[in-house]
Amino acid sequence: MNSKQRVHAALRREPVDRLPIFMWFHPQTALILAKLLEVPPSQVDAVMGNDVRMTWVNNNAAMEGIVHERDGQGHVDAWGIHWVKAGPYNQIQRFPLIDATPDELRRYRFPVEHQEALLERMQPVLAGSDEYFIGCDVSPCVFEMWWRLRGLEQTVLEMAAEPELTCEMFGRCADFAVELSRAACARFPLDWLWTGDDVASQRSLVMSPRSWRQLIKPHLARVFDVGKAHGLWVAYHCCGTLRPIIGDLVEMGMDVLNPVQCNCPGMDPLELKREFGSKLSFMGGVDTQDLLPHGSADDVRRATRRLIDGMTGDGGGFILAASHTIPPETPLENIFAMYAEAGLSREAIFDRAAAARAGAR
């Protein structure tokens, strides 16, 4: 069973040879693993058994896809957002529309002329389309895209003070995501359409559920509809406490929820599985704040086993992943303990590394 078959089978709740895996590694973690396994960092995902391959074609490409060597280096992206490297990731230095008037907001043009260049980012991913489960990430779709342009505080305030204008601009963000989605779904052999908007903190939603339903839900639903119209799984990413709107997301057609940040209120994976498991698959649930970096290997093994058993009790509907990128302070033994519970042993991983080295010769 190859990766593509494995993920499709798991999402359909059919038997699999091992649990599907899709991990994100902090850049420093990837370097540590690359040194240990004696492979280039670019091969860590494959050697560690990731079954999904995808990349960003919306604004996350500007945040995560452009890598600077030193802190303080930066760039201005096609949206006019100024990013600066601070630590391992790029952070926003300037929101281009933070001081704009309503008329100036309405005159803002999304970078439609860059659509081809953005979609071109999928080409390296497609090389494995026969073997791997292929995704296209069109996030951020609505709320998160707009606040990157307008500023988070300004956006949240205007959701209450200027709801009509804010809804209009949310709609324009969604328009751009919809067009990217349509082009990607028509052009590429995708297995899922990956959407997302971080609308929650670790304690609650950033806005009220009522505001989300009125201002964001109708626009996000249009992005979901593109994936559904092309017969694809629709995955949605949001960190934090989004429990109040999970039912809405299911109603809209969401098939896979990520990352299931298990230490947030209302986000216990097993409780969510009991409530939504007949309609929804999950990807995530392994705690990266306490368990992986600070627990023992036995702690990780027990917690991962409990998670897997609880999330696959109905035969599937689960992809093993961490609730965020695996941090560099995570002991290697903890990483291997987590993988072993998914059916991929340390020995198997080192064999995969040896095969990768042999193939590179």
Describe this structure in words.
- Helices cover 46% and strands 12% of the residues.
- By secondary structure, it is of the alpha/beta class.
- The protein has a single domain, classed as TIM Barrel, CATH 3.20.20.210.
- The strands form two sheets. Strands 1-5-6-7-8-9-10 form a seven-stranded parallel sheet.
- A hairpin with a 5-residue loop joins strand 2 (74-76) and strand 3 (82-86).
- The longest helix is centred in the middle third of the chain and has 25 residues, at 163-187.
- The chain starts with a helix and ends with a helix.
Order of helices and strands: HHHEHEEEHHHEHHHEHEHEHEHHEHH
Mean pLDDT across all amino acids: 96
Give, in spatial order, the strands making up the sheet with the most strands.
1-5-6-7-8-9-10
CATH fold naming: TIM Barrel
Question: Can you lay out the helices and strands and say which pair or pack?
Answer:
Blueprint: H1 3-11, H2 27-37, H3 44-47, E1 52-56, H4 60-64, E2 74-76, E3 82-86, E4 89-94, H5 102-107, H6 115-119, H7 123-126, E5 133-137, H8 143-150, H9 152-161, H10 163-187, E6 192-196, H11 209-229, E7 233-237, H12 246-252, E8 256-258, H13 269-276, E9 281-283, H14 291-294, H15 297-311, E10 318-319, H16 332-341, H17 346-360
Parallel strand pairs: 1-5, 5-6, 6-7, 7-8, 8-9, 9-10
Antiparallel strand pairs: 2-3, 3-4
